[in-house]
Amino acid sequence: MSQPSRIAITILILSFVASLSAVPLAEEAAPQAERFTGTVMVLNAPATGALYMKITIERWTTDEERKKLAEVLKSGGPDAFADAMEKMEPAGYIQIDNNLRWPIRSAASWKTEKGRMVRFATDRPINIAETQYSTRSRDYPIGVIQLLLPPEGKGEGALLAATQVQFDAEGRLEVKSLPTNMGPQKVINVQSEIVPPKKSKKK
Q1: Each residue of 96-149: pLDDT tens digit?
Q2: Which of 33, 121, 134, 168 has the most C-beta neighbours closer than 10 Å?
Q3: What value, to the nearest 5°, has the Cα angle with vertex 76 and ends 72 and 80?
């Protein structure tokens, strides 16, 4: 894996883990339900191309849940972290093309100078072309998606299909990516829309 790819992976995961234990500044009041769509540009993988991505968020992760995940990662390592995520109520779902949808366990949204930032994480590898042929993906159980939506126009971001994070003996964060994963896959043409509440059935 190239040095730029390693740097990009580290920055993405570091920012994700940091967001677990800290409340972002200028937190944005996110809607209860929202849908994000975009195109994942799969590069440096067994199969390359453009894949359609759809993320539906039904609820947003609370500050208490984020802090709990950070504490679990610090004390129990990546396996305990993945187990804790699996036990959480899903925040929503991600679907790549016509593959089965994956549960989103952590979802956060806040404002930045460049626009609105949203970050999602799942407790299992995201099934895109670069991971579906690997038998080692179970050892890299965390998938991360980060998107930036500017005030005007379509947004973009990155998707990291399969990662492993842990703290070493000196308390420093170590980041590993699935060997077949050559780094974050770029996400383009990102759009969001409010999901209308489901109508209750009349008795």
Answers
A1: 988 888 899 988 888 889 999 898 888 877 776 555 555 556 677 788 888 999
A2: 121
A3: 75
- Name the pairing type of β-strands 142-149 and 155-167: antiparallel
Residues whose CB falls within 8 Å of the CB of residue 156, separated by 6 or more in sequence, listed in order: 38, 147, 148, 186, 187, 188, 189, 190
- Residue 72, both tokens: 């679990």
Residues 136, 167 contacting (CB under 8 angstroms)? no
Nearest to 102 by CA among 156, 155, 46, 161: 161
d(CA 72, CA 89): 16
| β strands within 142-197, DSSP E | 142-149, 155-167, 173-177, 185-194
The 10s digit of each residue's pLDDT in 4-41 is 455 455 455 555 555 555 544 344 555 579 999 999 99
Pinpoint the alpha helices (H) of the chain: 3-21, 63-87
| pTM (two decimals) | 0.77
DSSP-assigned beta bridge partners for residue 37: 54, 191
